[in-house]
Specification:
With about 325 residues, this protein is α/β, with parallel strands linked by helices. It folds into 2 domains: about 170 residues, D-Maltodextrin-Binding Protein, domain 2; about 100 residues, D-Maltodextrin-Binding Protein, domain 2 (3-Layer(aba) Sandwich). Helix content is about 45%, strand content about 20%. It has 11 helices and 11 strands. Helix 2 crosses helix 9. The longest helix is centred in the first third of the chain and has 23 residues. The radius of gyration is 22 Å and the shape is globular. The chain starts with a helix and ends in a 6-residue tail after the last helix.
């Protein structure tokens, strides 16, 4: 009996040593960051920027894998199902912490319990933009145009929960006759506004800045709580009379649930080093984002779940989700 016990204890000790070696040596092979958008967009660009810098810090390649589709839910689905070893990560928005499941309960199988928040990477807001020849330069212009039109004014939407929230809140707070028209992405939505097919659109500043600078669209207002240097001179919707109107979103580095604490710490530290680099911060600004690192992975875990719960509540209030 004593010999059997000795063997069991020895095996348990060996397993413990192997586990310690596994986490202590992390990473010992390439890491994947999965993105739910096609190459070339804001999320993809942020992921590649972080992957390049983090790879140098971690001394292992960090690769970006694009998995667009199913309204951006394929990527988080894959990461939620991955081994929690730190080698499969997601660059995803706050919507993965509950809102996605409310939007598509029949197809989305993940929620906040399926992920380990590592670090918040970057945040941004939405810009309300109008056709340059529409005469809409401020919210009062939009209100006047809506009142003189017997038909609803179309808002070209690149899709997603955020735009549904914006349109619903805008209609509720302003009382204007507006209708969201979904397009297959930001580029077609912007084209619809430039051609006059739609009166307005809402997109992140990164997508609209070139059009604003070239005078191809009018930037009317932003959904941020304060004015920013990125969209200098453009007022907030709250300033324009819609008191309390605010909607921002962020992208964070997220892993599957159950990741070892020391692996999370190494990934957090590597992402924090990247976000402290002036070149990385400058590039994020050019993409229309502000660096938004948390002080710790624990702080990000708490704020991610809080932000996710707030967004989930706003989605549940949408008519289609009732």
């Amino acid at each position: 009996m004593n010999q059997v016990l000795a063997v069991v204890l020895a095996l348990a000790g060996f397993a413990g040593v192997c586990t310690a070696q596994t986490t202590d040596s992390f990473p010992s092979r390439p890491i994947r960051i999965v993105v739910g958008f096609p190459p070339g967009g804001g999320a993809d660009s942020i992921a590649r920027l972080m992957a390049d810098h983090m790879g140098k810090t971690l001394k292992q390649p960090v690769l970006v894998e694009n998995r667009p589709g199913a309204n951006t839910t394929l990527a988080p689905t894959a990461v939620a199902a991955a081994a929690p070893d730190g080698y499969t990560l997601l660059l995803g928005p706050d919507a993965v912490f509950g809102a996605d499941k409310v939007m598509a309960p029949a197809t989305v199988k993940y929620d906040e319990t399926n992920f380990t928040p590592i670090n918040r990477i970057a945040s941004t807001y939405f810009v309300m933009a109008a056709n340059k020849d529409s005469g809409i330069k401020r919210l009062a212009d939009l209100a006047a145009k809506a009142k003189e039109s017997a038909k609803p004014l179309f808002i070209a939407s690149p899709g997603g929960a955020y735009l549904q929230i914006i349109v619903a809140d805008l209609k509720r707070l302003s009382g204007l006759n507006l209708e969201e028209v979904p397009y297959k992405g930001g580029a077609p939505a912007a084209m619809a506004v430039m051609s006059g097919e739609a009166a307005l659109t809402f997109m992140g500043p990164g997508a609209l800045l070139p059009l604003m600078k070239d005078g191809k669209i009018n930037a009317v207002a932003i959904t941020n709580e304060r004015r920013t240097s990125l969209t200098a001179g453009v007022p907030t919707l709250a300033e324009e009379g819609l008191e309390g109107f605010k909607l921002n979103f962020w992208y964070g580095l997220i892993g599957p649930a159950g990741m070892p604490a020391d692996v999370v710490r190494k990934l957090f530290d590597a992402s924090a080093v990247a976000l402290a680099d002036p070149a990385v911060r400058e590039k994020l600004a050019s993409l229309g984002f502000e660096p938004a690192p948390a002080r710790s992975s624990e702080e990000f875990r708490a704020s991610a779940r809080q932000d996710g719960a707030l967004l989930k509540t706003r989605v549940q209030a949408l008519p289609a989700a009732r």
